[in-house]
């Protein structure tokens, strides 16, 4: 008996254990055949022998069960180790992913403003007339609405044409001081060499109580930001018009392709337009219930920044999903 128990303990794997079990407790097993001897015994002996066999069977079954548990755990452990994937394994032939240049450019822009303690705000892509136009000082009859071709839904809601409605949403829910940027997709009915119906903007808004914020503040932060983005470029501000800022400006940098000498990309001017900005028009504050505050706002197109940063000549290549483009940004 002890010998059998020892044999069980010595089993090295599940199949050895199973074979041993069959040879002892199986239909033709050694212990099972002992049971068949019972029928030749007399009552007294039979009872005694049967009790002995049953006790042995119980002991062996117990030993088998214990050993099975031990070996099975070992087996599962090993299987888990074999099946586990090595996420650190690097195959030189496999293709690594890369951030799309629009996203990496967006990240770079966001990093700059977050480092200056600007918050990041979000707004819906489907907007209403109030947030996208009216509260931005574009009354219904205003000709400036023609500046932007809008996708309308049947219920008069629309796909936002710029990120500026998030200025309104932020001012309606927060009190100054406000220092925020809002990155996201915008939509216009425009599709040609230099326009796509969906593109990305980053909008910025700073509002302080009192009359502290000046055009000089706006100018210095944008100059610093543009040199952080593009290196040692020249920056110039040109007077412009936006309904929600007054005064307004468009900002140019010296052409990153020809260094300002004049080329096809800058249309021989030596300058590239990169930003719209201005001092927040007092009319906007009326719509959000602010008084005695001052602030500035700016907005930029991320695709344009990405093209200038990476010298990508054709806007459409950013939207084609061609892996050969992405492979260059690994
Ligand atoms: N919303 C303007 C546009 O889409 C950009 C802008 C934002 C201009 C903020 C001034 C201030 O063209």
Explain what this protein looks like in three dimensions.
It catalyses: tRNA(Phe) + L-phenylalanine + ATP = L-phenylalanyl-tRNA(Phe) + AMP + diphosphate + H(+). Its EC number is 6.1.1.20. Keywords: Aminoacyl-tRNA synthetase, ATP-binding, Cytoplasm, Ligase, Magnesium, Metal-binding, Nucleotide-binding, Protein biosynthesis. Residues 122-320 form the Aminoacyl-transfer RNA synthetases class-II family profile domain. Its cofactor is Mg(2+). The two termini are 69 Å apart. The chain is elongated. Helix 1 (2-10) runs parallel beside helix 4 and helix 2 (14-25) runs antiparallel to helix 4 (43-83). By secondary structure, it is α+β, with helices and mostly antiparallel strands. It has 2 domains: 2-84; 101-329, 2-Layer Sandwich (BirA Bifunctional Protein, domain 2). The strands form 2 sheets. It has a 7-stranded mixed sheet, sandwiched between helices. A two-stranded antiparallel sheet has the order 2-3. The chain contains 11 helices and 9 strands. A hairpin with a 2-residue loop joins strand 6 and strand 7. The structure holds phenylalanine. The site of phenylalanine has 11 residues, from strand 8 and strand 9. Phenylalanine (PHE) binds next to strand 8 and strand 9.
The CATH architecture category of the largest domain equals: 2-Layer Sandwich
Order of helices and strands: HHHHHEEHEHEEHEEEHEHH
Q: What's the structural domain tally?
A: 2
Strand order of the largest sheet: 1-4-5-9-8-7-6
| Number of distinct helices | 11
Kindly state the number of beta strands: 9
Shape: elongated
Q: Find the CATH topology of the largest domain.
A: BirA Bifunctional Protein, domain 2
The CATH class label of the largest domain is Alpha Beta
Model regions low in confidence, pLDDT < 50 over at least 5 residues: none
What ligands does this structure carry? phenylalanine
Mean pLDDT over all positions: 92
- Kindly state the percentage of residues in helix: 40-55%
Let me know the CATH homologous superfamily of the largest domain: Bira Bifunctional Protein, Domain 2
Give the C-alpha Rg.
Answer: 38 Å
How far do the termini sit from each other? Answer: 69 Å
How large is the share of residues in beta strands? Answer: 15-25%
The biggest beta sheet reads:
7 strands, mixed
Sheet/helix structural class: alpha+beta
Keywords: Aminoacyl-tRNA synthetase, ATP-binding, Cytoplasm, Ligase, Magnesium, Metal-binding, Nucleotide-binding, Protein biosynthesis
GO cellular component, one term: cytoplasm
GO molecular function, one term: phenylalanine-tRNA ligase activity
Organism: Campylobacter sp. CCS1377
């Amino acid at each position: 008996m002890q010998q059998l128990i020892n044999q069980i303990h010595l089993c090295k794997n599940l199949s050895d254990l199973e074979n041993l079990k069959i040879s002892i407790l199986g239909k033709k097993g050694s212990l099972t055949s002992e049971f068949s001897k019972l029928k030749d015994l007399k009552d007294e002996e039979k009872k005694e022998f049967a009790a002995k066999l049953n006790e042995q069977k119980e002991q062996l079954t117990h030993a088998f069960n214990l050993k099975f548990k031990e070996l099975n755990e070992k087996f599962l452990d090993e299987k888990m180790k074999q099946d586990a994937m090595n996420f650190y394994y690097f195959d030189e032939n496999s293709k690594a992913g890369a951030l799309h240049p629009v996203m990496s450019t967006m990240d770079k822009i966001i990093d700059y403003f977050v480092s200056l303690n600007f918050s990041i705000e979000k707004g819906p892509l489907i907007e209403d007339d109030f947030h996208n136009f009216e509260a931005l000082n574009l009354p219904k009859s205003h000709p400036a609405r023609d500046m932007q071709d809008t996708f309308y839904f049947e219920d008069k809601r629309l796909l936002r044409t710029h990120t500026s409605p998030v200025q309104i949403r932020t001012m309606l829910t927060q009190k100054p001081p406000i220092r925020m940027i809002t990155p996201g997709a915008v939509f216009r009915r425009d599709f040609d060499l230099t326009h796509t119906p969906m593109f990305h903007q980053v909008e910025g808004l700073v509002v302080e109580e009192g009359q502290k914020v000046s055009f000089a503040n706006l100018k210095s932060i944008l100059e610093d930001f543009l040199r952080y983005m593009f290196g040692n470029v020249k920056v110039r501000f040109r007077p412009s018009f936006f309904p929600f800022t007054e005064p307004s400006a468009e900002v140019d940098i010296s052409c990153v392709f020809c260094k300002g000498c004049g080329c096809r990309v800058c249309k021989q001017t030596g300058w590239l337009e990169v930003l719209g900005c201005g001092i927040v028009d007092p009319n906007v504050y009326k719509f959000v219930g602010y008084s005695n505050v001052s602030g500035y706002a700016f907005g930029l197109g991320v695709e344009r920044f990405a093209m200038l940063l990476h010298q990508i000549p054709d806007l459409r290549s950013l939207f084609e999903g061609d892996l050969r483009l992405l492979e260059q940004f690994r």
